[in-house]
Amino acid sequence: MEADECMALQSLIDKTMGPEHSCSADEYLHGDDDLPVCVDLGGDNWEANFLAQLNQSSTTEDAEDEEDVEEGELDEEPISTLNSFSEAMKALDSVKLFLESKNCIEEAITVGSAMDTVASAHLHCTRQTTLHEYFTPASASTSE
């Protein structure tokens, strides 16, 4: 580096860092050359070794997942505790509120869209009642 470049860099360092935290241009440029790291990445094939470690750890996780399936923990289907449309909508709404409280706005919007889809499907499945059915008690209309 030429002298005028070094002086320009030194004035920029002094201006940016302030006089109490200033360092030489050489320290600034080479300060992170010898930082200690947790893993020795020496050698020409460090990238291949790193990727092999990643593949080995993912293979171990896959084997653990397969063991869980073999034990029968994941074979059982979850039992639904929702008995009505309104309970399902309340559950979705609580999930949406949880996501909003965690600032996961995009996911909350997705749940809101799912709620709209479920509501639309529910309305599509219900039929329009007649005026006579509206004034007839539910027990009387089922006996007809």
Description:
The chain has 144 residues and is mainly alpha-helical. Among the domains are: 1-31; 85-143. 66% of the residues lie in helices and 0% in strands. The protein contains 7 helices and no strands. It has helices at residues 3-17, 25-30, 46-70, 85-101, 105-125, 131-135, 138-143. The longest helix is centred in the middle third of the chain and has 25 residues, at 46-70. The protein is elongated. The mean pLDDT is 75.
List key phrases describing it.
single chain, 144 residues, mainly alpha, 7 helices, 0% strand, elongated
Quick overview:
With 144 residues, the chain is mainly alpha-helical. Helix content is 66%, strand content 0%.
